[in-house]
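Project standup — Tuesday

K.O.: blocked on the structure for the chain from last sprint. Re-posting the sequence here as requested.
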Amino acid sequence: MGSSGVYLNDHLAGATAGIRLAKRCRDRFPSGEARQIFDGIVSELEEDRVTLEQVMAAAGARPDQLKQAGAVTVEIASRLMHALPLLGTRSSVITRLEEVELLSLGIEGKRLLWAALRRAADRDVRLQGFD
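H.V.: unblocked you, prediction finished:
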């Protein structure tokens, strides 16, 4: 796998973990405005993941199942860390803040991925035609 495949797989793993984190944040709210906001974030992240998989296929990069499993493992470990008082922050407010901050960082990373792919599409016809 070339460096572009590694780069795309890193983002695919991030998307996997990000979707799980966004769903965890969403599921804390049974209804209301916060639930709607996180519903929108989950939907957009899922759409981005599908597009990323299509870009990977067009570029000839196959999903790395080990990276996907690693992303899920890290997300589960993070969840456990915050659930166990001896490991976590001991503050549900701080935990929620950390989760939203991590989600925000992931979304910014995804924005940078799309900007990089937009520039690369000028030189690589395989990447053209994606929005």
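K.O.: great, moving the ticket to review. The radius of gyration is 16 Å. The longest helix spans residues 92-121.
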